[in-house]
Amino acid sequence: MVSTIQLAELATRRKLMKDMDVSGTKRHQKGLLTARERIDLLVDPESFDEFNSDMESLPPKFGKKKGYTTRKQAVITGTARIDERQVYLFAQDFTVEAGAVGEREARKICKIMDLAIQNGKIIIGLNDAAGARVSEGIRDFSFWNIFQRNVRASGVIPQISAILGPCAGGSAYSPALSDFIFMVQDVGHMFVTGPAVINAVTSETVTMESLGGAQTHTQKSGVAHFRAKSEQECMIMIKELIGYLPDNNRQSAPYLDMGDNPHREDEGLAGLVPENPRSSYDMRKVILRVLDGGKFFEVQSDFAPNILIGFARLDGQSVGIVANQTRYLAGCLDINASVKAARFIRFCDAFNIPLVSFVDVPGYLPGVNQEHGGILRHGAKMLFAYAEATVPKIALILRKAYGGAISGMCVCHENGADEVLAWPSAELAALGAEGSVDIFFSAEIKTAPNPEQRRQELIEEFQRNVTGVYAVAATGRIEKIIDPKETRPAIIRALHNNAGKQDTLPWKKHGSIPL
Q1: Catalytic status, residue 169
Q2: Which of 78, 102, 125, 170 is catalytic?
């Protein structure tokens, strides 16, 4: 029989855990939430089941403070439900030793990650820590076991990280190894070394925000994928992302009927794209009118804006969208765009999410800076990612696809496209009609009675016989030429046609992508 004293001790310990965050008021004064408040905000009510709440930290090797207790834990772990789906998560508590991760904190995080992998469920990390607990000395090296779990989980379960405070040194590498990173503006900061260390080593002066704030990592470095205005908005965004993802790599993403007719046509689509191939337009407007409910969950919207990536639904099915944005760099593929798209393509393939490409691309971006920056190596990542992907791959050419970008955007069957659709305005060629005519017929044009008229005649003839959509379709490289208004039903039919696709790669330990 359990004694009254034992039950009283259990009640006391539980109360201690609830009252442990004595700095909650100070957090609120700073406009911040406590670790437990963040969990409650993210998960379904009363669904959080905490693990290892009685685990104790190791005492520091040095610098022991008055009133220090090993009972206080810098990380909270457990399982919960989000929109009735089970997830595993951990939340670092900055009010305990600045959230620093020691040996036992690392063990708690590793354990929850192991459970997520074993049970095939999404893992979410709410990061708010100054780094490793250096007071533990060499014992803290177990912190790096977290990285091993990140790598083991990669491609097996989706990994989501939220940066809700400082995330420095070793603490920053685990989010960097995850699939998606959310950062809160003016709250989250992520860097290898902070401003003080940088100033001491290089004499550079920089603020935390400009060094590793949300705007820096979503616009310049591309490290983070989403920027939220508040912690509340961040949790809403995480929930929305999860809605498009499966629990693991053996499942399909959840189906959601949004009540949008799969046969719906749109007479206004043709008017969104200018006839002049040199004129730009907003590809987002085209995409939104095709998708279920006009809803597009864009990823890395502030980084490499010349390419658009994100999740959406077509006839209720979760799909990954990759599209050229002609408003920036004419939609060319450059280094940043290639890296951005390649990683997204590989994620979608790992988790059985079909890929739909909206193509209007003049090629890879030329220039000395691009060549010296390694555009050949980085640009090849897109080719590799698309060629490696075994999910259904559907491409729609709106106006043009030239040069190496044909493979880069997976517009050819040779690189694995399952169906290629095209508007009547589409062109597909190693080099556009104008460039080809200027190179190969320059002498004829110069000697013509009316050089400009002759040039235009040759361009039209070249388009009709070589690069034009009907000439290309005659070679079997385009499945269907569609009226723009038919775009939505045509893509949905293509997805249904390939829903049962089964494709395998030759056995290998792993590929050698040009990193």
Answers
A1: yes
A2: 170
